[in-house]
Request: fold
Amino acid sequence: MTDVTVGVIGAGLMGQELASSIGRWMALTDASFAPRITAVCDLSSERRRWFERLGTIEVSTEDYRQVLSSDVDVVYIAVPHDLHEQIYTATARAGKAFLGEKPFGFDLEATQAIVSAIDESGVFARCSSEIPFFPGAQEAVRAVMQGELGTILDARFAFLHSSDLDRSKPISWKRRVETCGPGGVMTDLGMHVFHVPLRLGWGIEVLAAHLQNIVHERPDGEGGVAECDTIDNATIFAEGTAGDSQFPIVFETKRIAPGETNTWVMTIVGTESGVSFSTKYPKSFRRFEMRAGRQVWSVEDLGSVSAHPSITGAIFEFGFADAVQQMWASFFAEMADDLAGRYACATPSEALEAQRVVDDALRVGIRR
Ligand SMILES: NC(=O)c1ccc[n+]([C@@H]2O[C@H](COP(=O)([O-])OP(=O)(O)OC[C@H]3O[C@@H](n4cnc5c(N)ncnc54)[C@H](O)[C@@H]3O)[C@@H](O)[C@H]2O)c1
Reply:
């Protein structure tokens, strides 16, 4: 195994997910890389201390430039969206390979600047989007790519949360336009719903959008009240294009979807077959087919069948942490030109296209 050193900029929720993923890297049975986190950057000393417990940290700093000037091979950047342009472009200009968290820029303009910096520097850079690594999503993508669905008739992609139903939940940077981005929930969750259709090579033209700001104020965490100005729920009605066929696609990104916790859904129906998968039922892959003249939606328990083999047998379940680890395995494998046909991480140009869709939805959308 080749040793790879990793620097983490942003030691919050997702930074810690990477650390946990690397902590159980031995679960992957054919990984040719052995990643090790040797540098961490966060403004919070408490969060840096969390990483220092790993015992592998050589650089612990609140200045991200110290990570970029260190000798790490790869940088993972998981900071609020208003910092993406500054830190991602600096990372590219420092010549470091990196995985940047979605949305890969605060808005379309920022993502364009990031993509230009990557193109100019020639560094290997990818955008985080782990849900398509779930076995059900992988099987759906395989079926569509192999033409098993015939002519596509319609599609739905959704990413749904509900914790914002609780109006006493304090404001965070994700609930403010100035730090989250102009598309609010679309900026935050859009990459999750656009990644698969973009990977399938579909064109996406936004026809209409319904954009709701449902909760206007939240506790500021200091006894007061703060304005909550982001779009909470967005439904985009689009036309997809695959080859010569056009079809409707509905995209939903919602923070207030009662009953849902990080639920990712994809359903695609064609003239020959259909596929449907939801992380709410992580093992269950649904397929539509005609059987002896009867219309059948069947359910197959896929179990834990991953693109990068692991010690977890197919009789077990696959979860969010597994998806994160599979995404990172793809990142390292692609960096070493060893992907061997497996699903690759989202590219900077896919992130740019996702921002273009969000931008279009903001322009044509009805705001409520
Ligand atoms: N892929 C996913 O499923 C997923 C899930 C959640 C968040 N995210 C993305 O991850 C990124 C971070 O989100 P999060 O939920 O981890 O946020 P978070 O608030 O938990 O963590 C962000 C961290 O960045 C630190 N930070 C802020 N300014 C900094 C600076 N100037 N230098 C260094 N560190 C700084 C904060 O102190 C904090 O610890 C965002 O881009 C978000 O969209 C992705």
About this structure: The domain at 132-318+346-367 is CATH 3.30.360.10 (Dihydrodipicolinate Reductase; domain 2). The chain has a mean pLDDT of 96. Residues 21 and 322 are 8 Å apart (CA to CA).
